[in-house]
Design goal:
CATH class of the largest domain: Alpha Beta
CATH architecture of the largest domain: Roll
Shape: globular
Strand content: 35-45%
Radius of gyration: 20 Å
Order of helices and strands: EEEEEEEHEHEHEHEEEEEHEEE
Number of strands: 18
Length: about 280
């Protein structure tokens, strides 16, 4: 299936300001299921745009803006070929079949940063989910579905992700809040987890939360299964319709656009962002 992704984000300030370097994590991570055939990235004409790989091997554009101004404009056009992927098409290693499981020493050495909760009050259990011995895949699918069913979804375009304990207490959150909650519970139960962000474009009959917008989810590492994508906002495992642009340890590591302005006083601003996902063929 071929799709086109058109993304724009424009920042307008009431008076001229200086711009910090801005980092854009918007480029799909290519694999056998996702192939990018066209990339057109644009921003202010005076910008120095540097493409590189970050700490987590995400492709990024780091942009430097030498001139002050009232506007920072960014556009991205992507043509993407998608191949169907079954998220359950894997066999776990014997030591990971049953939950809870232990990683082997070589796995532990690589995964240790993703096993450490980011908050001191990260929960190991939830009011609506308790860890119990059982088949690993069934247990993780059950946790994913429990968060989906028991946390109310809200679209919140601005602001930092809430801590897991806060989202659990409030019972409401955006996709980034759902993801932080799931990742922290997984880590507290000995499962390596990283955050992911990108695009959700299922084009299906069943409406998905956050479909047609920049989205966040979680990847858990299962020996034999690799990094398994879990979307707690929608209560599903991820497939080829979840197009990953960035993975990382914390919400800041996967923020699609990261930057700020400089000025001696606070300046009123306006942000306009649009994302269009177009299915080009069957």
């Amino acid at each position: 299936m071929k799709i086109q992704i058109n993304y724009r984000v424009d920042y307008h300030y009431e008076t001229e300001v200086g711009f910090s370097p801005h980092l854009f994590r918007l480029f799909p991570r290519v694999d056998r299921y996702v192939n990018v055939t066209r990339v057109e990235f644009s921003t202010n004409a005076d910008a120095d745009v540097q493409y590189r790989r970050d700490l987590f091997d995400n492709e990024i554009a780091r942009c430097y803006y030498p001139e002050r101004g009232t506007d920072l404009k960014t556009g991205l056009v992507l043509d993407v070929d998608l191949r169907e992927r079954n998220p359950f098409h894997f066999l776990l290693e014997s030591h990971a079949l049953d939950f809870p499981f232990q990683y082997k020493p070589n796995e532990q050495a690589v995964l240790s940063p993703f096993l450490k909760p980011q908050a001191a009050d990260a929960p190991a259990a939830l009011p609506f989910w308790q860890p119990k011995p059982g088949a690993t895949v069934d247990t993780l699918v059950g946790l994913n579905e429990a968060i989906h069913k028991n946390i109310i979804y809200e679209r919140r375009d601005e602001g930092e992700a809430r801590k897991a304990a806060e989202t659990c207490a409030m019972g409401v959150g955006s996709c980034r809040d759902f993801s932080v909650l799931l990742a922290e519970v997984l880590r507290m139960n000995g499962v390596a987890a990283r955050l992911a962000s990108g695009y959700l474009c299922e084009f299906g009959e069943k409406e998905k939360r956050a479909e047609g917008s920049l989205h966040a989810w979680v990847e858990a590492y299962l020996p034999g299964g690799g990094w398994l994508g879990m979307d707690p906002t929608n209560g599903t495992l991820t497939n080829h319709y979840h197009i990953t642009a960035a993975v990382g340890l914390t919400p800041e590591d996967i923020t699609p656009v990261l930057g700020s302005y400089y000025n001696k006083t606070r300046v009123e601003s306006k942000t306009d962002a649009t994302l269009e996902l177009i299915k080009c063929d069957e």
